[in-house]
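Lab notebook, bench 4. Continuing the backlog of folding jobs that were queued last week. Each job is logged with the same field layout so the records can be merged later without manual cleanup. Today's entry covers Dedicator of cytokinesis 8, a 2001-residue chain. Filled in by technician R.K.

JOB TYPE: sequence-to-structure
TARGET: Dedicator of cytokinesis 8
LENGTH: 2001
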Amino acid sequence: MQMLPMCSIKGLNILGADLLSLHLEPLDLEEFLMSQLRSGDTDLMQELGDFPEDDLKVEQVEKECRTVRHSVPEDGVELEPHVRDCVKSYTQPWLVVSRSAYSERAGLHKLLRKQTFESDVQPENHEKPSPTMDGLNDDSGRTLTSSDFNLRCLTPDQRVEGLLAFSSHEELDRFNQEARQGNRHPELFALYPPADEVRYRGGSHMLFEIDIEPIFASMALYDLKEKKKISENFYCDLNSEQFKNFLKPHVPHVDQSTLARSAIFSITYPAPDIYLVIKIEKVLQQGEISDCADPYMTLRESDSAKNKDKLEKLRGQAEAFCQRLGRYRMPFAWATVNIMEVISTAALDRDVTDSEIKSSSIDRKGQLPRRNSERYSTIDDQFCSVAAFKPATITISTIFKQEGDRLSDEDLLKFLADIKKTSAPQRRIKTIPGSIKLDMSPVHDTPPACLSTELIPLIPVAEKNIRPVKEVLEFPSNEVYVPHNIYRNLLYVYPQRLNFVNRLTSARNITIKMQFMSGEDPSCSLPVIFGKSNGSEFLQEVYTPVTYHNKSPDFYEEVKLALPARLTERHHLLFTFYHISCQQKQNQSGNCETLIGYSWLPVWNNDRLQTGQFCLPIVLERLPVNYSLHSPEVPPVKWMESHKGLFNLEIQAVSSVHTQDNHLERFFTLCHALEGGATFPLRVREEKIPENKLEHELKLSIISLSSSSLEPLVLFLHLVLDKLFTLIMQPMVIAGQTANLAQIAFESVVSIVNSLHNSQELTRDQQGRNSLLATYLYWVFRLPDPPRDMQNPGRNIMISKYDFFFSTVGSMLLQSRVRSSSNPDIPGPHTSAEDAEVKSILSAKVQSSNRLNLELLQRNTITRARPCLTIVCVFSLLQQFHEELALQMVVSTGVCRENAYKYAWFFFELLVKSMAQHVSQLDKQSVPRRNRFSDRFKDDITTIVSVVTYQKLTEKVNISLAFFLYDLLSLMDRGFVFQLVKNYCNQMSAKCVSLPTLISMRLEFLRILCSHEHYLNLSLFFSSPASAPASPCPSISSQVCPTCQLGFALTAVQQRILGLFELSQEFKQQHYLAGLLLTELSAALDMESEGLHLKCLFVLLCSHDLDHRCIKPEVRAKVAALYLPLVGIIIDSTNYLDFTGKHTLTGKNKSGGPEDDLENVPPINQSVAMAIAGNPFNTLGRNVLVSMHGKSIATLAADTSRHLLVCFLWVMKNADRSLIQRWTIDMPPSQLNKLLELLTICVSCFEYRVMSTQALQKSQQAKLQLEEALLRGMGARGEMMKRVGGNVFLCTYAGKQLGIAFLRENLRWRKDLTQWRQTNDKQDKTKAELDQEALISGNLATETNLIVLDLLETIIQAVPLAECKDSVIGGVLKVLLHSLTCNQSTTFLSHTFSTLRAVVVKFGDLLFEEEAEQCADLCQKVLQYCSSPVDENRSQACATLYLIMRYSYSNNFSRVKMQVTMSLASLVGKSSDFQEEYLRRSLRTILAYAEEDTEMQNTQLPSQVDELLRNLNSILSDTVKMREFQEDPEMLMDLMYRIAKGYQTSPDLRLTWLQNMAEKHNNRKCYTEAAMCLVHAAALVAEYLSMLEDHKYLPVGSVTFQNISPNVLEESAVSDDILSPDEDGVCSGRYFTENGLVGLLEQAAELFSNGCLYEAVNEVYKIIIPISEAHRDFRKLVSTHDKLHRAFDNIIQKGHKRMFGTYFRVGFYGAKFGDLDEREFIYKEPGITHLPEISHRLENFYSQCFGDDTLIMIKDSTPVDRKQLNHSKAYIQITYVEPYFDDYEMKDRLTNFEKNFNLRRFMYTTPFTKSGRPRGELHEQYKRKTILTTMHAFPYVKTRINVIQKEEFDLTPIEVAIEDMQKKTRELAVATHREQPDAKMLQMLLQGSVGATVNQGPLEVAQVFLNEIPADPKLFRHHNKLRLCFKEFIMRCGEAVEKNKHLITSDQKEYQQELKKNYNRLRESLRPMLERKIPELYKPIIRPRESFKRLSFRRTQEENS
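JOB STATUS: finished
OUTPUT FIELD FOLLOWS
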């Protein structure tokens, strides 16, 4: 074997998967299986046993033939070898190597039962109660929570039978288990969803204005862009019987096939410029085309009365011309239509983009079927919306008259280009009135009565004689690279131009008669020309249309011929030129033809078909003898114009026989010469090759094959490869010498493979495999036939199958020297004396006994026979193809070697197919597996695999290698293949590649190997232990707490059991493939490598699950045991799982404190549990689980996680229960915690989601497609079959392919499955589809959860054996409770409640004493289901809740009562769609249980339960009240506030209701109020904690919180005399802890931050920081200070921009309001809320309550007089109010925040006059100020607070004036001194102060109040104060004017001057009034010293001036 250098990677052991295991020696599988068969578990061996004999079958598959018979050459002709080979290739069956089909079970969904989910159940619609105002009492007392509703008047629900009827725990467990196992779905994977060609058809109808003669049409497609005609002509006519009779003399009979009026056109390369051109001809008549068209343009059928005579005359003339000239035609008219525009228009409205056009045409190229199947042509779906292309009728109303001098295709294409530009030809062409109607439709299925282009009927054949449809042959605009696949041999002749201009005779109406001749006699004219419409199918001659009076006519005729299969040099085309006399002259006989001359063209020249452009001379006299043997240039005859070429024509062949390529023709000719029958010298074209040069020439032709152009090489690819493989396998005898062409043929194959892969034109699949080659290998390749002389049975009768081996052994010995000389890497064999003998053996005829077996042969027991001349031929027959191919791969060198390994997939599949054919010929009974192939061949395979692995491995080659070994497992010694796998793994571990790539490649390699149909046998699954080792009694250590075991050694049994769940060396060796796969998987997960394709396991387990061989439970247990190590791997990788698809919760605590230690924290985070409680659809966020581990972890993708989890669940479902139980007993606690965490994740991951998006595409395909995708596509056989898909033939032969959503697409696809497309289009689905989808996903959710429940039960039942049951039960309970938060089916819930009841019965003492949190959660979840609309769920929940009460009665009933009450409070407070009727019914049912429980009647339980239920009922009554006010948030919060206040003595419940209020506020975006609720809750907790323990770092009760809000002091009502913290059940919730306190405060801080109250955030953290410092929690401190930093930063950034609340006074008046009558409230609304907004909201709500007519909104703010109100009406008065502060308060309230926080006093003003009017003149305008004081300070836990005090005082007119002037002055000062002045604002204020238009404002005030000194001395001070105000006002105006001077722009100077002038005018007007003082005011009260007096007055005067 070739030794390869190794390289090592530093740090490779990072894999963590114990790579040493890769070096383990696998078992000798063949030996082991034999020993098992002899001694072992024979039952299981028979069950799955050894591979079946027909594991790989070589079978012939008949080709699908579209026509009723194969297209083959005519009978009775001896075919040339090449034609014979072609025909054989096109008609022989496919040879396919297939695997035995193992039927996997179908129809698994038929047994599914519909699961009921609460989310799918619509609760009964109860009418919404309209709010009433009754019963709202004062804030004191708890009247709201009392109810007179009597539960006993309700009927209880049905009770759960036998609730207390179990004598023992074992009986209870047994009953529950039997119930759980009933109606289960055994196949988990059946529930787990994975993730065309079109042509168009045309029919036609033609209508001219007049109908006077026969008309003939032909249609063809033209591609304007490519300037090509892209289809053959289709001929039809729509003539009436009358006109057909005109032509009777010229039409001897009409064949059915010529009656077609519909045709199928195909387009391979759709393009926007494809035109359908219709050419119209008529019978030749006298006159130019214009003359003949004139009647059509002038006469109208509508004027028939007027033109009747003219029309009759025209018809008569037409009939005469038809009788005489009926066989000749003339051009008449043409029309066109853009096909693509029609298709796009006829499709549904859909925009098509350029990019779609581009991509679609590129994609389409490689997906065509074969060229000659007539199916290869497609109009691209994307390009022209063919999927939506509806049948359409097109009317073409523009029919152009033909121009006699512009008939050629070049002219036509110019016309089309003009039409595209301007919609009309540039040169003015006349049009003929009329219309052509075409019916167009897409063709999805072949219509009946359809004919192929060769006129062979297609399937389906029409039952009755109906008009046929013709398929029109396409001439694709670009090359089509699809090999020929049917026999087609057509020739198209296109006469183009004739030049008789210099001809002196009267040759003007010229036609050409064309004939295909097999000789020179007129009788040799062959009937091979295809006829046109309404005539014969085949003709012997055809005439071109005549252009009247034209000596150099152009032609557009297309003549189609069927070429004979055997052509000779005598075959030629004969052209006869005639002048046609249109008018019969008197002296002329009946004949109208005048012969002009002849020309001819040999079709077969130098053994090659003549095609292309020709210009032929014309002979003027009779043709000489043997003219056809020469080209027209040769014979000495009379030529027109001295032998000048006058006749231009083109010939095209469409042939699957004639290669039309020099290289290919030469190669085929030389190959056929080798096969015998050739005469030498051999003529190849012009060259003659003697026999001795044959080998050299053949080698040259083989080398030059890859030089041939791509299209012919592809077209004849199958034949070329077949010939080359024959040359590789069979050494040829040339001139008596053996010529070994194997090497050169192999190099040619490699070269062709390389060029096909490198071609940009050819498609490759996702593995990079060329589709053509993949197709060839799968369908076409077969071992070359033996030479013809060996097929004679008489000649080789003595050759037995053992001669194969004999010859092979001999040839291998002989070739060993060749190897060692050609490949230095391979050691040469030692020379032996046997070599000479071998030579002599090979030179003599071999004869061996039929009885001679292989062992004798290998011992060289050889008999020799006499020499014979045919020995080399025998040798060539017996040579083994696979051996030769492997040898060539090994000895290849240079570029050939490089490419052979680069495209190793091709040679691997070639080897496999040839080996399979070889094995199929063996006698498998007498030849054991290990002897099927020679040792030398095995060495070659080993070398090839080593070279590929070490030197040539890429990702794609890796996949090919894996499939190669996969196939070898079915053919060779499996132990040998395992050695190859081992070598691969060893070499891979030493490769210098990046680690992720390495793991990915190895995992992919193993994934493919493990998808083998017999993977279970290969992994020796039947030798795995399916059950736990017998243990007569529990071992001592198993009864000890696992934590105590750590100091002791585990027992042998325990070690063995735990070992089953680990990847041990023994496991890896015995179960080699499974061990490798799990080792790789473990390595990939340990590296946290995301995105690896871990779906292999998923596919594997899925195939086991659905395999009919694995139905029996004992077999399943054995299979599951094979995957037990996977369980350990998955548990260890729990941290990497992502089961959400997206993170649903924001993770704030990625790195936690000491409480985050894994051992201490339960699997579910508490905060998460609370978050989930209110939302059954919420799933755990991955990061919340991650937060427990104190590190951030890279996750696997969500779908990968799901696959891993479903694998885990499958193993758990099928593994032996006793084994699992023993495992959980022996498991260390940390591992058990991880297992429980994993189960939690499973519950979330497979939760049922309503209206799942994994929709099925069509309802009728739902079951079929799903089953196929799930059951068949993922089996090992599916893996095998995937290799052959994705290629062009599969589309045609075997239906469509399947892409399974969860498998890598670059693997080999099945050919017999259909695509299952996932779609999210809801509108596409019918109700049946949605029902089917819901059925499957509901059953999946139920089954996965039941598997989890089974495992939890197994753990619970193991608990009594272990002592650490408290933590175990706690963990199990958390998983159970989490499952109740998810959306679950009734089936699952009933079993879960049974399990919960069993837990309560068995571990009640533990549950009610220790697990306080679990108890709370349990009560909440169970109570939640007591309100379920589903009867079954309610019934189970009631039974469970009663059992909790019953079993807690003797333990801790007070706690249960408290928890149940709190749970109900939480439930009704949070849920908006809560159904209290159902809960009431449940309470009644629980009461019934208590009354019917005979055992407990003598205890206090019934009365205690009764009391509890009455209390719950009263809470429900509150809820009903709350529901009435859902639309009035203020009233709702009042109600909740009162309920919370009613629980003042019950801290737990008060806390719950405060949280409920916080949630409601949060939903309304009232973040500040929500935060306040949480601050109150925190204060409540602080009160409790301060009573319990005295820590300095804790807050001293609620007093500490008064800096946040003085309102919090109300929480201090909870004091020692009311509350005892030691009392059972009180303050037992999770929040009454330090962590709970910090959690509440942190939430409050975040809400304050959301509400922009950043200053409050600081106050909150002042309480938190000492606690964090005391705990040395520096991480928390970092986070805290970071949040504080952000808060202070926000104050700086947003300080003055923040909008705080807007406040309104709302008064309610009228008896209708009940308790609200005459009550006033201050409402807090969001910032910038206008009065109309709140007014509109309240008006809307109360109008609904009382009716529009009853409610009246009071528009002003004057006091309401009750006497003037209507008692039957309701009144609301709303007034805008502002916060009010006394002067002393303003000193402390400096910032905007301080002026908007802790507000209790508000003010509004009311203007009035003494006369009663609100407004009057300045001197009579009074103002009333009203100051309101609220009960609590804003912000509070509510958004409206009662007004408890009202103060009013009136301002006199002068006081009003003073206030107004102070306000104006203040505004001016602020605007002037802003840091960033606002010019517009300043100018607006100045305009209102000094502007000319408003001078009357301030000036008038001054004139009214300052003009005279008041007479009343009481007003002196007011007068003076106003004077001083004006002085300050005028000063501020001056400052403002100056400031404005610096702010104005250049264009505002005039405006500034005007302002200045107005200011000066105002100042002068005010001066006299401002200088007038009241002397009395300046008299000193105490007589001061003179100097003081002087000083002070002087100072005053200075100030005043």
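OBSERVATION: The chain has a mean pLDDT of 77.
SIGNED: R.K.
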